[in-house]
Amino acid sequence: MTITDPPGGHGRPAVPSAAARALARCIAVEPGKFAAAHWGRAPLLSRAAELPNADGFTDLLGPADADELLSRRGLRTPFLRIAKDGQLVPAARWTGGGGAGAEIGDQVLDERVLELYASGATLVLQGLHRTWPALIDFARDLGTALAQPLQVNAYLTPAGSQGFATHYDTHDVFVLQVDGRKHWRIHPPVLPDPLERQPWGGRADEVSATAQGPAALDVVLEPGDALYLPRGWLHSAQAQETSSLHLTVGIRALTRYAIVEELLALAAADARLRAGLPFGTDVADPDAIEPELTETVEALRDWLLRADPAAVAARLRQRAWPAARPAPIRPLAQAAALAAVAVDTRLAPRPGLRWRLDPTGDDKVALRLFDRVLTLPAGCEPALRALLTGTVARVGDLPGLDDADRVVLARRLLREAIAVPAE
């Protein structure tokens, strides 16, 4: 796990204080201890009194904010799920058109939500890292600290209700208790470190049997408490005497199996591995397959010993970078800034933007981003690095270019949403 990074390093500056503060809100131990003793290994309970925010997590999303999302924001599926008695309620029961000028048929109907919630259903607000400003910023900062893409959901559970049966997630989570109290029972994994393709439903009997045994952690979360759970750990949660609101931050970490998948994809370049099986081979006969398996394993081993880390890293980058969008931009303000660029204009790198600069060998430099690659003159490289690492803000101070080229580059970076006006 990476908690901090050294300056530079292909677009990975040192973790800023905002990222460190976001992580500190979730764990009551030092980052190094969290990485060594808990990350991917064991749950961690952090009580509100041990965490820095006296007001808990209400600044991120409170009950009134959830009500606003459910009633006044034109919310649509899949940004809401509703569960009752351990089963998802079909969306057709709580969605419909929004009236004149908003006839789209999958909008959340607040009166139907009220009916279900009042009868004990749990509401799950999904994708809040894309829709609620405070959580957009928090998820970006926490994702920077962890070097992983995140998702944020909110769970609103009526008093005494339990939304889901005991289960496990295929990603690590932070549970942040916002309002009310919720009783959590945590059990060890039936499948350590499950992949996304290995959900708990395929092991429902094992999960149920393990849940009948003694819990590894049996605790009631109070407002302001935080709980870290590695993927695979079984859990169930029940609201207590009042309704409960908690946030679940899902950490979508890459695994070593992802490296295996990319290695296999690259292995298609090897002619021995592309070769067909001999004519007439009975693939159901172990004796017929044995020599082919031996040859294939040898060919794969030989290829793996020559695997290029740079090629693997490039493929993993294509997986990871699009999963964590940079900070939102304001298109109208950005367009206005674009029209007014001058040498005294001050710019900043777009927060959360992942980038990499690579020479192309033809007097050009490639700026690789999460969704595209820009090719620019090689002479722009010093200016690009200075701006994207945050060491230079004033356009007239960008190194290696004259003023006219500095302005041209600044306009390009604003238009491409790589830089933003400095505040």
UniProtKB/TrEMBL annotation:
The keyword Protein biosynthesis is assigned to this record: no
GO molecular function: histone H3K36 demethylase activity; histone H3K4 demethylase activity; metal ion binding
One family name in Pfam for this protein: JmjC_2
Signal peptide segment: none
Domain of life: Bacteria
Gene3D superfamilies the UniProt entry points to: Cupin
Domain JmjC: residue ranges: 121-268
Cofactor(s) in the UniProt record: Fe(2+)
Entry keyword set: Iron, Metal-binding
SUPFAM superfamilies xref list: Clavaminate synthase-like
PANTHER family: BIFUNCTIONAL LYSINE-SPECIFIC DEMETHYLASE AND HISTIDYL-HYDROXYLASE (PTHR13096:SF9), MINA53 MYC INDUCED NUCLEAR ANTIGEN (PTHR13096)
Protein name from the UniProt record: Cupin superfamily protein
High-level lineage: Bacteria, Bacillati, Actinomycetota, Actinomycetes, Micromonosporales
